[in-house]
Design goal:
Shape: globular
Distance between the termini: 44 Å
Strand order of the largest sheet: 3-2-1-4-7
Order of helices and strands: EEEHEHHEEHEH
Radius of gyration: 16 Å
Number of strands: 7
Largest sheet: 5 strands, mixed
Helix content: 25-40%
Structural class: alpha/beta
Strand content: 25-35%
């Protein structure tokens, strides 16, 4: 089965909150009918990069069987981590980067690697705010996430 996952970790429509994330899975069944599954979360007090990774994890963990996945994200960091093989480099260096600096969000990167393992995933960056139809989808998710009632506790957040 081919699946498209649209993620957003910005929740821009929430003027007072720290943000949130949303994910939509879209697939066509054997009869050719289009289906969507929405995974929307409420406010998350965390960094935008963590939200983007969590949104991708939510989509991949929702899949019950091995699939070919196109994962659309407006996070260049998330997409480049896989397309430019940063993850491979980090693994080889023991989760270190450049000048032996530790990689941030290692807990989530490890969980994302595990979530993507049974699937063939193509990561596609959708440049933000350029009227691209796929980016409009990502922006829609941000609004849906901001309107959600769920509260996610992000243990990795080091805040006020």
């Amino acid at each position: 089965m081919n699946v498209r996952i649209y993620t957003d970790g910005a929740a821009r429509s929430n003027p007072e909150g720290p943000g949130g994330y949303g994910t939509i899975l879209e697939y066509t069944d054997k009869k050719g009918e289009l289906h969507t599954k929405e995974i929307s979360q409420g406010y998350v007090k965390t960094t935008n990069n963590r939200m983007e990774i969590m949104a991708a994890i939510a989509g991949l963990e929702a899949l019950n069987t091995s699939c070919e996945v196109e994962l659309y994200s407006d996070s260049k960091y998330l997409v480049d981590a896989f397309n430019q093989h940063w993850i491979d480099s980090w693994l080889a260096k023991g989760w270190r980067r450049g000048k032996n600096e530790p990689v941030k969000n290692v807990d989530l990167w490890k969980r994302l690697l595990q979530a993507k393992e049974p699937h063939k995933v193509t990561f596609i960056w959708v440049k933000g705010h350029n009227q691209h139809p796929q980016n409009e989808r990502c922006d829609f998710l941000a609004t849906t996430a901001a309107d959600g009632d769920d509260l996610i506790v992000d243990e990795g957040y080091q805040g006020e």
